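User: Earlier you gave me the apo prediction for this protein. Now I'd like the version with 2-acetamido-2-deoxy-beta-D-glucopyranose bound, so I can compare the two side by side. Same sequence as before, with the ligand SMILES added.
Assistant: Got it. Here's the input I'm using:
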Amino acid sequence: MFAFLLPLFSFLLFSTTTTTSAQPYKPTDYFLLNCGGATTTSNRKWDTDERSKFMPSTTSFTSTPNKRDPSIPEIPYSSARIFNTSSFTYTFRVTSGPKFLRLYFYPATYSGHQANQSFFSVSSNGYSLLSNFSAFLTASYLGTQLVGSPPVPNIIKEFIIYVKPTQSLNVTFTPSPNSYAFINGIEIVSLPENLYYKSKDLNYVGQTSGPMITEDTSLENIYRLNVGGSQISSKDDTGMYRSWDQDDRYLLSAIGLTPVNMTPIVYTADTPNYTAPELVYATQRSMGNQSELYNLTWLLPVDSGFYYNFRLHFCNIIPQYTRQGAVLFRIFINNHTAEERADLFYWTQGTGYPVFKDYVIFVNDFDGSRRKQDLWLAIGPNRDKSEQYHDAFLNGLEVFKLSLFNGSLAGPNPELQPTPPSPPPPSPTGKKKTPPYAAIIGGIGGALVLMLSVLGFIVFRRVKHSGDKSDEQKSKDFGLPSGRCRRFTIQEVKDATREFDETRVIGRGGFGMVYIGYIDNDTTAVAIKRLNALSKQGFHEFQTEIGLLSKLRHVQLVSLIGYCDDEGEMVLVYDYMSNGTLQDHLYKGKNPHLPWKRRLEICIGAAKGLHYLHTGANRAIIHRDVKSTNILLDENFVAKVADFGLSKLGPKEKGVDYVNTTVKGTLGYLDPEYYKYQQLTEKSDVYSFGAVLLEVLCSRPVIINRGVPDEEMNLAEWGRKNYGKGTLHEIVDKRISDEIAPNCLMKFGEVANSCLRMKGSKRPKMDEVVWRLEFALQLQEAVEKMDGEVSGDMKGGSGMSGNQEFMFPVKEEDVSVVEEYEYNYELEGTSTGVGIQHGLTSTDGSSHEVFVSETVLPR
Ligand SMILES: *[C@@H]1O[C@H](CO)[C@@H](O)[C@H](O)[C@H]1NC(C)=O
Ligand SMILES: *[C@@H]1O[C@H](CO)[C@@H](O)[C@H](O)[C@H]1NC(C)=O
Ligand SMILES: *[C@@H]1O[C@H](CO)[C@@H](O)[C@H](O)[C@H]1NC(C)=O
Ligand SMILES: *[C@@H]1O[C@H](CO)[C@@H](O)[C@H](O)[C@H]1NC(C)=O
Ligand SMILES: *[C@@H]1O[C@H](CO)[C@@H](O)[C@H](O)[C@H]1NC(C)=O
Ligand SMILES: *[C@@H]1O[C@H](CO)[C@@H](O)[C@H](O)[C@H]1NC(C)=O
Ligand SMILES: *[C@@H]1O[C@H](CO)[C@@H](O)[C@H](O)[C@H]1NC(C)=O
Ligand SMILES: *[C@@H]1O[C@H](CO)[C@@H](O)[C@H](O)[C@H]1NC(C)=O
Ligand SMILES: *[C@@H]1O[C@H](CO)[C@@H](O)[C@H](O)[C@H]1NC(C)=O
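And here is the structure of the complex with 2-acetamido-2-deoxy-beta-D-glucopyranose:
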């Protein structure tokens, strides 16, 4: 079965000293402090921190540990700086950009202060890196809890902080009450701007979108593994002093094969030569041409309640693998499929050169304890018939924890004796030290020979904590507003808008005027929303909105830059969106009409934004006012959901999926169920979004109350009726009806129809809306690719291959109650008018407060 690997035997020697073609990266900032010790050189030059320019004051003292473990280097571990009175800050003047911050700890008794008495917090530039941290507990945990790991005397914590222009890098140690803090060494190394930040290709696993890694994110490296290879020490890294560990202690069962490459690694523009050392790409763990059904699985304990970025490094080193489609494999992270058909040759345009992929996953915190959970990474052959070999392989792995919205990376201390949390308790075999085969690999793997270690399966039964089933569970409140939201003075706001000049008005909302303004010496255009003092939205809501919004960052949401609350003014400052509202491009305004594909992309983008609102934070956020004027378009027509003035936090209690609230929203978009029962759910946003979809398709307002037959007044109802009769194509915007592929229209209609169902529980969740719309886009693209010519036949529910089910004809639950319901409304105190809401049954005739925005004109 493994015969094809035989040629590799002839290259048994693999030397770590092969000449490397990679030029190391040259860091612009580099500090290495031997805290509490002297300037000295031991493989690298360490500077003393004594009287150095980094230390502002002297509320600390130096000490030496009572013992020294022979397995750890002398520098920096034979001295420490101790803080037992107050907090203490090191300040490093560095250039802007991302920096590695590495903290070296050796828990021991220092001047009579016992190791188990030390608890402290570490923060840096507004990020909370460690909180009530015990180096002693952490080291003990690492030494006992992992299968096959040796005792761990020392700990190195690695963070990445993005230093903004004009900032310095500060590191503050704060002892917990009646405790002390200590540090043995500090290292700061800059890294290439694009190595871990600004990645365009984050793949979200188990959800369709999530946080991006921006300058406001700090990272902690949790694992960095040279999969299938030996330990790579920091000096053999590509100039950034990262060290790469062996992966075998994290393997769940099968060891697989560890082939080694013989030829130099060729780096590319997408994978520059500093990405990872050649040694990482030259070794891998693979399965061989597998006839057995199994996965290669790694278990990686992490703190729960955080997002993690998995960076998987691949490079083809098996000479037999030469083309696209020869080896296809699946990648699973926490049992979610991250890739169904991973194909290295496809990713690298047929070359098989090094490449890496980033996968972001959220690790749910089920009981609010933030305790450690095993993250599962598994790979296995796809077993597609076209596959030549049934193999799967991985060369390197980096796992990063992403800071929370409030800038925190800190998890709790590990529990040494796992309190029997949930049944069943860990079985004794899970605690065994080095498994026999891993020891063999480790032994021979040191530096010289890593060859076919064909070992079937070693199964250590690891018993998992239970209760991991539900995917979406939000149990925690938001933290306090972060310091990342900028506060403007009223003068700055006035300067930016030329004293709220009328000509600067770009929008009028229910809550006040929106102006275009220019800040930062006129370099940056922003949208400035000045809340009407008469608005019912009080100061409290204003603050809630700031608190909520300052934590939300997503490419599909308009971001809040700052606010001003001077002199009784309530002003919010947002990113300026140069292409205005979606509605402006549909039927209001004089813009050229949007092509159908662009419309689809906008819908997908907005749906992703809403999905993020619903699931991205600890508690769901319900927008409550989704409409085409609240979807803005940037200069590239990327859709951004805006105006969270009415947003509500979702339910707090478990098992409840609505919040009680007075009805607010906009006629024509308002969820009838919400209107009836005043119970707001995420599905109310889904309804409104369904109305937007029809607006996009038909290019007309959701309510037309003059000049059209009654049945056409309400678009939601008109659209569903036509969908039901199979005549949706008749109401499509004439300007684009020739562009739309019939299958795509069917799919799109189906999505809109399902969003607009009367019963919230029958409507899809936003992530489902996203992928169904994406599917519609694929249908459109497939047809465009085939002939660029779309047939005129828009009827019929067929034309789709295979397993697609169409709601055709409509089911009973889809038939809306056609009733017209009139009521009076008040528009911000002054004008009054009449609005119409269709599809509603009036329950008790009582009048509800309905907020009506500018989309409906008074009759
Ligand atoms: C490595 O990358 C750097 C920066 O792009 C470049 O200057 C250098 O020539 C590269 N080295 C090799 C061997 O490609
Ligand atoms: C801090 O430690 C020093 C040296 O061990 C000791 O003299 C001093 O009393 C300690 N201060 C506090 C507040 O514990
Ligand atoms: C801390 O460690 C010392 C020995 O180093 C031990 O005597 C003491 O009981 C420990 N304290 C706690 C609270 O575990
Ligand atoms: C770092 O500390 C210096 C001096 O203590 C202070 O002036 C500066 O504002 C701090 N910078 C950051 C980013 O916290
Ligand atoms: C710090 O952690 C220790 C052990 O995890 C705990 O006993 C102690 O109460 C914590 N202290 C604070 C201030 O949270
Ligand atoms: C790979 O293995 C499968 C069965 O396990 C076999 O049918 C196939 O021929 C093998 N491919 C090669 C190229 O050896
Ligand atoms: C591989 O792992 C995935 C995800 O846990 C699982 O669904 C699949 O059944 C596994 N395959 C095998 C052959 O065990
Ligand atoms: C993944 O699936 C395995 C069984 O296939 C299960 O034991 C494990 O708990 C699952 N992991 C997660 C994180 O759900
Ligand atoms: C950040 O938020 C998390 C979870 O909401 C919370 O546990 C933590 O204490 C917060 N940290 C800070 C520094 O506010």
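For your comparison, keep in mind: Residues 119, 132, 176, 413 surround 2-acetamido-2-deoxy-beta-D-glucopyranose (ligand 5) (CB under 6 Å).
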